[in-house]
Every structure is written in C-alpha cells, then in structure tokens.
Amino acid sequence: MYVILVYDIRTTEDYARVSGRVHKICKKFLTHVQNSVFEGELNKVQYADLKKQLKDYLRKDTDSCIVFSGNNEKWLQKEFLVEEDDKTSNFL
Q1: Which residue of 15, 37, 60, 76 could cross-link 33, Cys pair, CB 3.0 to 4.6 Å?
Q2: Residue 52: domain span
Q3: What is the pTM of this model?
Q4: Residue 81 lies in a domain
C-alpha cells in the first residue's frame, strides 16, 4: 500500500524528545517529504510495525497522526504550489 503520513506534536516540556523519536521512526519506514510529512510504499507487516512503534510515543491527549493510504501511488497526483522539491518525483 502507498502511504502518506502526517503528524503534529503539541509543544510541551517533552516536545523535543517525542518529536525527535516520532520523526526517527517515520524515517525508518518512509521518505521524509516536508517537516512532519512522510510517504512511501509499505506492506502490511511494515505498516503494522510502524503503527506499533508510533503508538509507543504519540500521546493520545495532545498529538495527532493521520495516515492516508491507497493501493498504488500512480493514482495520486502531487502539485507544488510554491517551490517544487524533487525528493518525491515518483508522482504523476
């Protein structure tokens, strides 16, 4: 499955630790696109592992994490409204 993951970590006293760890976990599985945005191809086992690891750090009462998924990346279209970044040039 092709995944786009977006997260937001609320600024608290342990923000740096939580944000850094979530970023590091996402980077193990997906391509870093922009700030808190990652994308890439994952199989079911990888996706389950990603979710499990993130749940260890994301705080239910303060943080947010949204995952958009589809069967194939070719059905997604990307448009850069400001500056184009070719890190994810695999989009149509």
Answers
A1: 37
A2: 2-72
A3: 0.79
A4: no
Using DSSP's 3-state secondary structure scheme, residue 62 falls into coil
- For the domain that residue 30 is a member of, what is the CATH number? 3.30.70.240
Q: To the nearest 10°, the Cα dihedral for 17, 21, 27, 32?
A: -30
- Cβ atoms of 26 and 40 within 8 Å: the answer is no
Does residue 27 lie within any of the structural domains? yes
Q: Residue range 40-65: average pLDDT?
A: 93
Task: Show the tokens assigned to 83.
Answer: 């500056």
CA distance 17 to 5: 19
pLDDT band at 82 (very low <50, low <70, confident <90, very high): confident
Residue 56, pLDDT > 80, answer: yes
**Contacts of residue 90, Cβ cutoff 8 Å, sequence gap at least 6:** 73
Q: Is residue 13 part of a domain?
A: yes
